[in-house]
Amino acid sequence: MCCNDEIRKNFTYQNLDIDLSLVKDLKFFDPHIHMVSRTTDDYQAMADAGIVAIIEPAFWLGQPRTGLDSFRDYYSSLIGWERFRASQFGIKHYCTIGLNSREANNEPLAEQVMELLPRVIYKEGVVGIGEIGFDDQTKAEEKYYRLQLELAKTASLPVQVHTPHRDKKQGTTKSMKIALEHGLDPGMVIIDHNNEETVKEVLDLGFWAAFTIYPFTKMGNERMVEIVKKYGSERIMINSAADWGISDPLAVPKTAALMILKGISLPDVEKVTYRNAISAFGQSGMINEADFSTPAEIDQSASYQKNTILRGGQQPRIDKSSIVIS
Ligand SMILES: [Zn+2]
Questions:
Q1: Residue pLDDT, tens place only, 139-159
Q2: What's the pLDDT score for residue 3?
Q3: Which sequence spans correspond to the domains of the chain?
Q4: Distance (Å, rounded) from C-alpha 238 to C-alpha 31?
Q5: Distance 191 CA to ligand 1 centre (A)
Q6: 132: CA distance to ligand 1 center in Å?
Q7: Is the full-model pTM beyond 0.85?
Q8: Which Gene3D superfamilies does the record associate with it (predicted)?
Q9: Which CATH superfamily is domain 28-293 in?
Q10: How far apart are the CA of 59 and the centre of ligand 1, in A?
Q11: How many Å lie between the centroid of ligand 1 and the Cα of residue 241?
């Protein structure tokens, strides 16, 4: 049995049996996922579920960085190694580069990062400045958010905005107000982590509204179905934001299956799980759909700076249908 069939079997979501075969002919683009924290098994499962392209925003590692070199190496891994690793599973990897809001509060280090950014953002595969914005909504966060909006304008790159989990409504409104103050075209700004309270204002002001599907918490995918029913599919996109915390790298295909089950039309599903991400981030000039719209030839024995995803003697591509590990 091919691994696709294995992965596309029934799964349970909040007591609903959803069949991933509902989406077996669809392609997905997850525009927010932190793959450095995920395993090769995740890449395999994502490829098998139909995810063909992803965007990895630069963010916080879970503990504070103590020097510029960790930022430098992290950005290099987003542009180099992680891009290669994704390619070994037939997934096209893009990234957004920026100073995250939490670490903007370490001002001496933030100053150094701001000097580094212009040397990174023009590299191949960088489709925006992100994820930037507010966490605790401090003065330092605002300062570096503004500076990075200016950088995005100079570079003509889209901006991926992280909205705060605390005081979300106020933080989202403030993020958009500041972007407009700096003269950014709302069509170049993707406001992320929306919910029912923020979506209307974001769409009314002409920004893109991204939604993160978090398991067990704020934004489950049944609520997402209701949002698409109410607001349609224009300028809306969904993502997993999967990282080192409890999260689900298959959130996009699972939500697509649930949408189909709940009667959302196929063109609308396609827009919020694939097309809109390409339209928004494609404004960087870095996304060529032909790179992922047809299945890629994968050579898992290829190497990146002499490193491969294979360990001594391993054969490329693991047969997931076998319980024997040989
Ligand atoms: Zn994130």
A1: 999 999 999 999 999 999 999
A2: 45
A3: 28-293
A4: 8
A5: 12
A6: 10
A7: yes
A8: Metal-dependent hydrolases (3.20.20.140)
A9: Metal-dependent hydrolases (3.20.20.140)
A10: 6
A11: 5
